[in-house]
């Protein structure tokens, strides 16, 4: 989960159960979806709003729970994924802007609170990667 900077919107990663499924035995929950969705909830109206982002595909068995953490800043939403990528989304239009590769599951992402054009991703490949926008890399003379 992640809050928008103004604390009005809550962003939540989910792997939903089948629509309309009725749980008859709590010890045998239904299989969860293979897709991971990002839902946006307006905390003033308590309603789901905007675009539901179908972020990425899940690869762990659909009877297991897996945590993927996201982060939100003024313009962007970032999320890890089981497909070995971090994702950057336009927060207002729900468009995927970039994918950040790793060699294993990306569990967590975080924006630099002072520079939202810097994103950090962490992965089961035992790496922490720092990503910058192309404009910043160019302006700093970095390769």
UniProtKB/TrEMBL annotation:
WD repeats: 99-131
GO biological process: protein ubiquitination
Keywords: WD repeat
GO annotations of cellular component type: Cul4-RING E3 ubiquitin ligase complex; SCF ubiquitin ligase complex
Highest rank taxon of the organism: Eukaryota
UniProt cross-references to SMART domains, sorted A to Z: WD40
InterPro entries: FBXW5, Quinoprotein_ADH-like_sf, WD40/YVTN_repeat-like_dom_sf, WD40_rpt
PANTHER family: F-BOX/WD REPEAT-CONTAINING PROTEIN 5, F-BOX_WD REPEAT-CONTAINING PROTEIN 5
Protein name, per record: F-box/WD repeat-containing protein 5
Organism name: Apis cerana
């Amino acid at each position: 989960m992640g809050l928008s900077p103004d604390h009005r919107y809550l962003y939540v990663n989910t792997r939903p159960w089948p629509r309309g499924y009725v749980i008859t035995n709590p010890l045998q929950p239904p299989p969860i979806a293979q897709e991971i969705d990002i839902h946006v909830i307006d905390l003033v109206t308590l309603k789901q709003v905007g675009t539901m982002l179908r972020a990425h595909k899940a690869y762990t068995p659909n009877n297991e729970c897996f945590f993927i953490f996201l982060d939100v800043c003024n313009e962007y939403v970032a999320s890890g994924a089981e497909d070995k990528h971090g994702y950057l989304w336009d927060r207002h239009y729900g468009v995927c802007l970039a994918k950040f590769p790793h060699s294993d599951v990306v569990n967590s992402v975080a924006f630099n609170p002072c520079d939202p054009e810097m994103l950090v991703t962490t992965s089961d490949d035992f790496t922490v990667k720092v990503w910058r926008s192309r404009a910043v890399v160019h302006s700093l003379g970095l390769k």
